[in-house]
Amino acid sequence: MSGTSEGPRASAGTAPGAPAAPVTERHTTAPAENGPARTDSARTGPGGGDAGSIASELRDYRAAFNAATLPMGVVDGRGHVVRANEALGGLLGTPAAVLAGRQACELLDLATDDRTWHAYREVLLGRRSRFRCTRRLKHPDGRSLWAEITVVPMTGASAAESARVLLTVADVSDRRELQERLRHLQMHDPVTRLPNRTLFFERLASTLETPPYQDDSLPSRQHARIGLCYLDLDGFKAINDTLGHRTGDRLLAAVAARLTDCAENDASRNAGGSRLVARLGGDEFAILVEDSAGTQELTDLARSVLAALQQPFDLAGQRLSVSASIGVVERTAAGTSPTGLMQAADTTLYWAKADGRARWTLFDPERNAHRMTRQSLSSTLRPAVERGEFTLEYQPLVGMADGVLRGVEALVRWNHPQFGVLPPNRFVQIAEEDGSIVQLGRWVLRTACRQARRWQLDHPDEPPLFISVNVAVRQVWDSDLVADVAQILAETELAPGLLQLELTESAVMGSGGRPLRALQALSDMGVRIAIDDFGTGYSNLAYLSRLPVSVLKLDGAFVKGFRYEDGTHPSPADETIVEAMVQLAHRLGLTVTAECVETAGQAERLRRIGCDTGQGWLYSRAVAPEQIAGLIGSRPLEG
């Protein structure tokens, strides 16, 4: 009889109090009354369960494996299929029994890319707990399906079984189709049905990462190229505002259709990569040309697009006409980034707009370099004034009758640490655009007046020189120019009559209100007002009678017509015009300065016509203040 819960009794001969022998699975039990003794192991399986029940359980597992609708297979450590269920055989179009011994990677296309193959091998070798991937497989009925393949290790009692893995294959075609539909909606514009900005940049990045190289047998076409037409509709906002957004959307859809036709026609004419037409937003579109044949192909495409869009659009009984501006970029794909390509296209589109719209413009590296330099100058201009990077040079203004130095014009120079010495035409317009001309102009005025006063003090026995300073129209509008001039004259103790302010014709044209009051106040103060480059702007004589002008400076274009020395034929018309302007100015009580005097012959004819002062290389270039000091009181300058 087996022991009770209190434990087995001690056998005969066992000392009282000695511990009883332990009971184990293999310990024999007491013999039954009518049968021989037997061990527990005869009644249980290796794991402690009944052998019959384990066998039944294994049969159930095998039956479930074979009957499962989910395709499954058992694969050994070498990648061979050990067994497969009927669902897997049906999926692959092969009886399940025939699959045994086949390589699973070949059946399910797991070896086509290195990343998938490596991950699969890691699971087979027991170095990874799970692997999952998606593959496109061919169904026996001919259709393609998307399958999600999962590989996980199996556990078993034996070493052989522990090295096996379970492979399952789930048909996810419906889910994949839904994802593709959702992605299509996400990546396409609902108005035009074209690819949107997101898909365009995704495609552009993919193209530049793996450019479609041409046949290596053609040496001139070994390197892939890429082209882009970036266009913007001219005046589309006005259509939206006047006719409504519904009409605007119809117009955008019609434009998209014509752009698509142009791209398809271009693809049929030129062998190579594909064309992608996309709407980037608003009224902006792009045509991406992969593996372009060169600049000519892109410019031809741009011309065809302009021609197509210039044809009227008939939209629900309304006839509309639009035009477009197109920026064209074409270059080698190698070394080009999506950001760099789009920046070049955006810059070129801006050029097309600035050049008059309804045209295409090709990207010009030299023009872009100039733009980049201009941007660099703009960003450093204000700090440059504070750092003292600007200097003044002075060009003499000489009396035409006697050749004596009468005054000087102050000309600003920028000693740029990167670009060297820059003349005014490189940065003054930039300063006017960003407003820094006010700060710079104030510095020029103060420095010039201080220098003029110093010359006067250093040469007390000579007639003082007047100083002429250029003033931008923005200085008149954005600053209290009258107060600035009064303050600087008081600081430097320079007489107002020795200061001359030069403004261009365009700056004084239509002057009224504040500018006119400022000019009048300066004139009342004793400051002379000069009109620079007279004769090349509006040349409206009416303002000469109502503006407080003291001096006219004739533009050098007229003076060039006076040349004889270098074989150039003089222009009688120029001489007649100059003579008439000089006479008119004198009748109005104004003095006249001729610019760009370069030869003695020019000087002689200008003197005979009656010009009061001259300025140009015949007398001197713009020089440092020390050189001007040497000219004060010296013999008359050549002229």
UniProtKB/TrEMBL annotation:
- Segments carrying the region annotation (Disordered) are 1-54
Tree of life domain:
Bacteria
Pfam families from the xrefs?
EAL, GGDEF, PAS_4
List the InterPro entries hit by this protein, alphabetically: Biofilm_reg_signaling, EAL_dom, EAL_sf, GGDEF_dom, Nucleotide_cyclase, PAS, PAS-assoc_C, PAS-like_dom_sf
Q: Sorted alphabetically, which Gene3D superfamilies does this protein's record hold?
A: 3.30.70.270, EAL domain (3.20.20.450), PAS domain (3.30.450.20)
What range(s) does the PAC domain occupy?
131-184
Annotated ranges, domain GGDEF: 224-365
Q: Where is the composition biased (Low complexity)?
A: 7-22
Domain (EAL): give its ranges: 374-636
By its UniProt entry, which NCBIfam families does this protein fall under?
Answer: GGDEF (TIGR00254), sensory_box (TIGR00229)
Give the protein's recorded name: EAL domain-containing protein
What organism is recorded for this protein?
Answer: Streptomyces filamentosus
